[in-house]
Design goal:
Blueprint (H helix, E strand, L loop, with lengths): L1 H24 L9 E2 L1 H11 L1 H21 L5 E9 L20 E13 L3 H67 L5 H36 L8 E2 L3 H4 L8 H10 L1 H21 L5 E14 L7 E10 L7 H67 L5 H35 L3
Parallel strand pairs: 1-4
Antiparallel strand pairs: 2-3, 3-5, 5-6
Helix pairs in contact: 2-4, 3-4, 4-5, 4-8, 4-10, 7-9, 8-9, 9-10
């Protein structure tokens, strides 16, 4: 009983220690900062997004398959304890081929087996597992790049929504001033009530735009929090560095395609899959080769029948296993593995074609987005001039309220387009970096 009590106490201490270690190794949840730059958002997402953790754990699990395949080279040691009570002078006469003699005994011992050679099958299985493990490491890197691109897109979408919200707030303030001015003129019988109705309609439209813009800004912030891995609805100030850090767009996509082929982790993973499939195909081919193993057994028989004279036993030997016929199973497995290896090659080729197309498309999108910046800036400049002239003409009684409201609407659209153009170009550059494997 004292031994059992000690065992229970030791088990309780061990469980307590494990729980304490688990509490110490628990990673605390990251908190969203008050101010957030794009680089900070990318680092937070890489550390906090569960998709990255999933990819890392899968890569670690795949690494254990290398050990599993390599274990065939290691000796196998098994402990045995056997007790047999047999009817006197009986023999086993039915069933598969076996040793018919059965003696009463109680014994314990060890048996060991060691693979000498299987003519390359285990070697190819190990190489296949290593290539698969490397492929999963590349997929982990690809997942990080996916998360980085998602962060960039969500970050710039949030900045865009916030910029539109500022335009909407400014528009509401300006339309309210215009409505008050037109109302004063209408009260003084200098303008008709029709002008006042037009001004109030424009104010109502601006207020509706403000509601939509506020909702879009909140939705974009929620999407950014989700990419960052935050469960809480964090509200923080985004640092706009788009105007200072944007380079010129590339002109020729062909050198970039070569760069993408060398840097894309998903393509590297596909190439590793091809290598793994090829090694596995060779391993399946080697199933038809013999397997040579060394065997050994050692033990003691303290309780034994009279026919068993020695109190201990020991033996060594070798075994050669030669497959002769198994219903064409090995042929089918080899053919299956060969076809899967060819399919993996075609998938890698298809991915190269997709990468080349996406890089060309991304370069064109950056060029177009960059050109839109200058176009929207010019449009904003012209709309500001048109609005200024329309306001002067209206106050002088040379134009109607329709001309003024159209000029106000054109300015609002130009402001929104100018804000969107900068962030669309920043997003296009982020997509290009992703396509290049950066």
């Amino acid at each position: 009983m004292r031994g059992i009590d000690r065992l229970v106490v030791c088990a309780a201490i061990g469980l307590t220690a494990i729980a304490a270690v688990g509490q110490q190794t628990t990673v605390p949840a990251l908190q969203a900062p008050a101010t957030l730059t794009l680089a900070q958002a990318e680092r937070i997402a890489i550390r906090n997004n569960p998709d990255v953790s999933v990819a890392r754990l899968v890569a670690l699990a795949q690494g254990q398959e290398v050990r599993e395949a390599r274990s065939a080279w290691m000796p196998t040691l098994t402990g045995n304890m056997t007790a047999v009570d047999a009817h006197q002078n009986t023999r086993i006469t039915a069933g598969v081929l076996n040793n018919p003699s059965v003696y009463p005994r109680a014994a314990g011992g060890l048996s060991v087996s060691q693979l000498i050679t299987d003519f390359g099958r285990t070697h190819n299985l190990v190489l296949s597992a290593r290539s698969e493990a490397q492929a999963h490491l590349e997929r982990e890197r690809a997942t990080k790049q996916d998360i980085t691109l998602a962060v960039d897109q969500a970050f710039y979408q949030t900045l865009t929504a916030q910029a539109v919200l500022k335009v909407a707030q400014q528009t509401v303030a300006e339309r309210k001033i215009t409505a008050e001015q037109v109302g004063a003129l209408a009260k003084a019988k200098l303008r008709s009530n029709v002008d006042l109705s037009f001004a109030q309609v424009q104010l109502s439209q601006a207020q509706l735009m403000l509601l939509d813009a506020r909702n879009q800004a909140q939705t974009a912030m929620a999407a950014l929090n989700a990419v960052l891995g935050f469960e809480q609805d964090g509200q923080y100030t985004l640092v706009d560095q788009a105007a200072a850090d944007l380079p010129l767009p590339p002109q020729d996509p062909e050198p970039l395609i070569t760069q993408a082929f060398a840097a894309r982790p998903d393509l590297a993973a596909a190439n590793d899959d091809v290598i793994a499939a090829q090694h596995y195909s060779k391993a399946e081919r080697d199933l038809r080769m013999p397997t040579i193993s060394a065997l050994g057994a050692l033990g003691e028989t303290p309780v034994r029948a009279d026919q068993i004279q020695s109190p201990w036993y020991g033996a060594v030997g070798a075994n050669i296993s030669v497959p002769i016929f198994n219903g064409f199973l090995f042929n089918a497995r080899e053919r299956e593995a060969t076809l899967r290896a060819e399919a993996a090659q075609q998938q890698a080729r298809s991915l190269r074609d997709t990468i080349a197309r996406n890089v060309r498309t991304a370069v064109l999108n950056t060029q177009n987005a960059f050109a839109r910046i200058a176009a929207t800036q010019q449009m904003l400049k012209q709309s500001n001039m048109a609005l200024d002239l329309s306001q002067r003409r209206y106050h002088l009684g040379l134009s109607s309220i329709v001309e003024l409201t159209q000029a106000q609407l054109a300015q609002t659209q130009a402001l929104i387009a100018e804000s969107n153009a900068r962030y669309e170009y920043a997003t296009a550059l982020a997509v290009l970096r992703y396509q290049l494997g950066q």
